[in-house]
Structures are given as structure tokens and as C-alpha cells.
Amino acid sequence: MDYQLNPEFNHLKDFVENVESHFANGGECIFKVRNEVRVFQEEGTAINVKAFRVPHFINRIVYSFFRDGKAKRSFIYASRLIEKGASTPAPIAWVNCKKGGLLGKSYYLSVHLNYDFTLRDVLDDKTDDKQKILEDFAVFTYKELHCNGFFHLDYSPGNVLITRTESGYKYDVIDLNRMEFGPIDYEKGLTNFRQMNYDSGITEFFARTYARLNGRSEDEAVERLKFLNDEFIRKRNRRQRIKHYLLFRFLKK
Predict the structure, then answer these.
(1) CA dist., res. 88 & res. 101, Å (int)
(2) How far apart are CA 249 and CA 180, in angstroms?
(3) pLDDT band (50, 70, 90) for residue 250
(4) Rounded to the nearest 5 degrees, what angle is found at the Cα of 66, between the Cα atoms of 61 and 71?
(5) Cα gap 90→109, rounded to integer Å
(6) What 8-state DSSP symbol labels residue 91?
(7) What pLDDT digit, counting tens, does each position of 7-61 carry?
(8) What contacts 169, CB < 8 A, 6 or more positions away?
(9) pTM confidence score
């Protein structure tokens, strides 16, 4: 087992070193699809543990010898965001479990955040103050992420946690294992909103708000983001058709 522990959480060393056993036998499951997330209470700390499923054989080789795995990337990227003042749950540790010299299960541990709702809840009209929340979210994306050179490659509404505070709203981003770092120009920054494609009104709102933050034409931003949304949906649907076709052919055999 390989792992790295954030020095601020040295009191959790025993838990981290035995996370595989803890995860298999306890905790509260709060998410389970491809990966699984469980919450534990340990030494006065609420710990969010995300267990990544075992990669396919090629990626087991890649993540073992050529590239950091998802858990380690999550830890490193969270540390970078916090260093620059962007908000994400504090990283505790990453753990890689190996079998036959290759990566098997991996775990990313962070402080569990008691947020109020996700951006998806806002877009689904499950909260009040919708326009204010969405406008502040666009500002957060621009100032805390893009201006600091952070580009989240899985910037979906479920990956933005929102907490009410006395001064407004606090935004925390999660699922950080797919990110890019470096200067982000206006065009690229605008593309970060293409996964928020709930309806044309939301698309237009984000386009106009982001254009104002950058001193650009709002109408041109609306047309551009609508095009990017349509392109994103086409590519996603094409991938799903190919995946279903290959699965059908495999099952047919």
C-alpha cells in the first residue's frame, strides 16, 4: 500500500493505514455508482472517503508506472486549489492498494463538508434566491478558478457544493481528479459552462454573466455557448451510441 497523509491530519494516520478494512466494514454510504463514497467519524473528524473502482488492465499499468492515479491526483489538485484560495474540502490523504505490483483499489480521503445544497438543486428550482446563487457561482468560477489557472474538466452541477454563510454563499468544487492548470483565455473559460446546459435560459444567463466579467460582447457569448452546448451534447450522444453498440455486439456473442 502506498499513501500520503496531509501533516495537518497526523492524528488520523492509523485510520488511513487501515482504510481498506474500515471502508469494507463501516461508514455511512452516501454515494454509489461507478465509485463509492462513505463517511466516517474518527478522532473528532468527519472523513469523506471516496473509493475508486479498480481500473481496467491498461490503466492499471498506466497508473502504476506512468501517471498518478485518480486518488493521488485528487489530493494534489485539492492542495493546489486551497493554496491559491479556491474552495474545496480539505484533503486528508490518498491511498493506493496494489496487487501483483499493479494498482487495484484507491481511496481519496477529505474532510466531509456539511453543505446546504448542490448547484444541481439550484438549477432544478429546489432552492430560493436562484439568480443570486447562479450569478455568484459565475463570479466564483471566473475569479477563484479561471483567474488562478484552474480548469475543471468535469464541471457538472453535482460537483459544486453550496453552503449558506452570513455574507452570502460559499462554493466548493469536488471530483478534482480531472483538471488542467495554466492560463485560461476567455474562449476556454466560457466552455466550462457547457455542462450546465439545463435550458436555453440558463445557458444565456451564464454566457451574459461571464461576458460581463470579461468585458466582452454578451450577445456573441450567448451564441458561442449555445454552439458549445450543442456540440457537447452531440459528442456525448455519439459516445453513448458507440458504447451501446459495442456492448450489444459483445452480449450477442
Answers:
(1) 32
(2) 35
(3) low
(4) 80
(5) 9
(6) E
(7) 999 999 999 999 999 999 999 999 998 899 999 999 999 999 999 999 888 889 9
(8) 132, 133, 136, 137, 162, 163
(9) 0.89
